[in-house]
Design brief:
Shape: globular
Order of helices and strands: EEEEEEHEEE
Helix content: under 10%
Radius of gyration: 18 Å
CATH class: Mainly Beta
Structural class: mainly beta
Oligomer: single chain
CATH topology: Pnp Oxidase, Chain A
Number of helices: 1
Number of strands: 9
CATH architecture: Roll
Strand order of the largest sheet: 2-1-7-8-9-6-3
């Protein structure tokens, strides 16, 4: 009986940022407990009429992805650069992300997004805490690898 592979130790995330990292940069130095979390996909809007009948419809909704990086992550500099450049230019930069997860034989492509929030200063505790960064994307697609 084969054991199912559920590791994310060999997963790869490539972040592409228009005008800053157009060739893409590999994200490294993920948090120990959580490398990333993906927000739920909202598929439908539903409501119940006063007569007890349900009505529902598909509505497009953005997808969120949260990255968690250790305080020693070399990718923190990438995130800080996006934040500081956005603040300096008073603008946002279009992002895409490619997540390859060999254990699932899947590749996920998140397109037309922006860095929405970032915790670029690690909390100082017994040891420095990981920092979280939230991206919001227009679309998410998966493909087999």
């Amino acid at each position: 009986m084969a054991v199912g592979n559920i590791t994310d130790a060999d997963a790869v995330i490539i972040l592409t940022v228009e005008n800053l990292y157009p060739s893409g940069v590999q994200i490294q130095g993920f948090s120990t407990d959580t490398a990333w979390t993906a927000g739920d996909a909202t598929i439908a809007e539903a409501r119940m009429g006063v007569d007890g009948k349900l009505s529902a419809g598909y509505t497009p909704a953005p997808r969120t992805l949260n990255l968690s990086l250790e305080a020693s992550s070399p990718s923190l500099e990438v995130m800080r650069n996006i934040i500081e450049t956005s603040q300096m230019t008073k603008g946002v930069f279009s992002c895409s992300m490619q997540i390859t997860i060999p254990a699932q034989n899947k590749e996920y492509t998140l397109s037309n997004g922006v860095l929405q929030t970032g915790h670029d200063l690690s909390d100082g505790k017994k040891v420095l805490d990981p920092s979280q960064f939230t991206f919001i994307f227009e679309s998410s697609k998966s493909a087999s690898i």
